[in-house]
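Incident log, structure service

09:12 report received: a user says their structure output differs between two submissions of the same chain.
09:20 pulled the input from the user's history:
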Amino acid sequence: MIHTLFADHLSTKQIIHGAGLKSRYHHIWHMDEPLAAACVLLPESTQQVSTILKICHDHGLAVVTHGGLTNLVGSTETKENDVVISLERMNQIEEIDSESRTATVQAGVILEELHRATDKQELLFPLNFGARGSAQIGGIIATNAGGLRVLKYGMTRHLILGLEVVLADGTIVSNLRKIIKDNSGYDLKQLFIGSEGTLGIITKAVVKLVEKPKSRYAAYAGLKKYESVIQLLKHIDAGASGKLTGFELIWKNTYEQLTSASDAVRPPLPYDYEYYVLIEIQGAHPDKDIQLLEHLLENALEEEIIEDAVIARSQSEVDWFFRIREDVNNLVDFMPYDQHFDISIPIPEIGRYIARCYSRFRESGIATQVYAFGHVADGNIHLMIGKNDTSKATKEAIDHLVYQEIETLNGSVSAEHGIGNHKKAYLKFSKSDSEIAIMKALKNQLDPKGIMNPGKIF
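09:34 re-ran on a clean worker, output below:
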C-alpha cells in the first residue's frame, strides 16, 4: 500500500487514505465527488515535504499538490495512484517586516488571512480576487494569479521577492531574501511562479507589501461604445495620478444577470447601456480623492465619453459595487452546465472580438448563455458559457469558437488561470514550438522522472 511508505516519517493524522479520502476533493466546486488518490499527505514543515518527495522520487510515484482548490483549469485533478500533498497545515505567517515592507509566509496561508494581518500593520498585500477566502499563497504563486489590481501592481510574480521550493528529488532550494534588486544571475524563482506544480512544490515565500492606502473609492460608469471604454481608461488613468487601482469591464447582459440575483447585488445603474465599467481608486487623502473621482467623471460626462455614473462613497457601498463583479456564482447558478474562459488579447481588439464571439454563439446555437467581463485595462477578459451537456464534443466545439482567433490576434488562451489539464491542446495558440521545447527541457531537467503533477500543461 502506497500510504505505508510514509508511516515512519509522518504521524497517522498526517496520512489520509482509504475511506478517509471520501471527505476530500480536487476542487471546491466538486466537493460531492470523493478524491481519487492513493493518499493525501499533510506535511507541517519544509523538511517533511522534502522527505515525502524523496520517497516519491525513489519509487516513481506521481505527486499532485493541493492548496485552496480554486484552480479553474484542472491543475489539481488527480488519479487513483497519485500521492496528494496538501499544504493546508503549513499556514503560518512567519513575519511581517514593516520596515522592509515584506511578509514571510508559508504556502498554506490563505490570502484573506494575509490581508487581515497586514492591515493591522497599516500595510497592504495588493493581490485581490474573488477566491481570496480560500486561495492559498502557494497555489496563488504556482498559478501566477492575477485579479482585480493587476493594472496598478502587476501579476503575482511582480509581488514575490523570494521563494523556498522543494524539487522532485527532495532537494530544498531556498532564497528567502527581502531585497527588491538582485541581479546576480538567473532569477530562479521565476521558473516556479506559474509552473502549476510541475517543477517543484513552493513551501514559503517572501512577498512585497505596500503602505495601506487611506482612501478607497469606487464608481460604476455606463457607456454605449467600446471605443469609449478605452477613452475612459486613458482619461481616468491620466487624471488620477497613479491612484487608479481597478478598471473592470462588464458587458450589458452580464451586468443584468449579475445584478438581478438578489437585493445584495441590486444594480447601481439602470440597464440602459452596452458596457459597464467598475472603477477603483486608492490614495492618501480621502476628501481630495473623492473630489478627484467626481471631477474626472464629470469631465467624462461633459466630453460624452460616458453616459452616466454613480460613486460609492462608503465602505459598504464599495463592497456592494465589488460584490457585483466578484460573485460569479450569480452567473454559474443559473446555467445548466458552465464552461469558463480566461483569455488575453490586445486592448483595442477586445470589443470587436467579444462581439464576434457573441455572434458565433448565437449562430451555432450550442450555448444557452454567454457572459463576458474582465480586467480590460490589462487585456484580460473572462467568458462564461452556459451549455446543456458536458460531452467532449460540446466542450471542444465551444473551445473552438472562443480560441479560433487567439493566435492571429497575438493573444493568450490563459491570462491568469494557467493551462492545467483543460487547455493543453490549445497551448500551441499562445506559445511557439521553440518556446514549448524549452519548457519541456526545463521540466525534464528539474523532474526527470516526470512525477510532479504529471500530464499538466503538456
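09:41 both user submissions now match this output. Likely a transient worker issue. Closing.
09:42 reviewer note: The chain has a mean pLDDT of 96. Residues 286-302 form the longest helix (17 residues).
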